[in-house]
């Protein structure tokens, strides 16, 4: 999947539903360095609202973009600190 | 907060400090700065306490989902399991939690039918299948995830004794030896308190 974001790592949570996309995103972000960008590929439509809410309520992350692509919901999260 | 280094010389001022006084003042300022930083940090740290009292298959999910999600937000989370909620943490019983078909208005069958033998097992199987198809995590997965992400899963000591369970019956990492007073203390410190 190509994107204008400089993706460091991709997390595949296709087929998983709440709360897995968020919990796995958090774990993946913890393993990254500052300025890295995580691409999260989900099929859970609730992840659009959930990832946004999580990014707003969590220190050290910045939601760069969310893309809907057919059945896929793709989120770009940057680790800021 | 100023980052300027204070000058050691105060000769040109009317007030004079001797070196010891100045040192004491500096130490006091450092102490205060540290305690302000602690307060700022503590204010930032959100905390949630959930009291889980139900042990049916469906009611095991909400506290675990909320707990693991709050932990993903970086919150400090305590789930106090009491009465039937204790079965969620019981390694053996948690594998065999049942959905109740009787008295459940969401079941597509009348109570008279739901009360027949084997109906709870059937309803539970149906729900398990749906959960699997939907990609929803299992109870065991959610417990593992919660513990991994630092959620404090607590088993009420009084209920352990009431149900004649053993402390070894619970998942590794579960906190035992706690009671209502501990739960109250956590609730008082929490931003969010839920009874499930």
From TrEMBL, chain A:
Belongs to the sulfur carrier protein TusA family. InterPro entries: TusA-like (IPR001455), TusA-like_sf (IPR036868). Pfam families: TusA. CDD domains: SirA_YedF_YeeD. Residues 9-79 form the UPF0033 domain. This is UPF0033 domain-containing protein. Coiled coil: none annotated.
TrEMBL record, chain B:
The keyword Ribosomal protein does not apply. Residues 15-42 form a coiled coil. Pfam families: DrsE_2. InterPro entries: DsrE2-like, DsrEFH-like. Signal peptide: none annotated. This is Peroxiredoxin family protein. Keywords: Coiled coil.
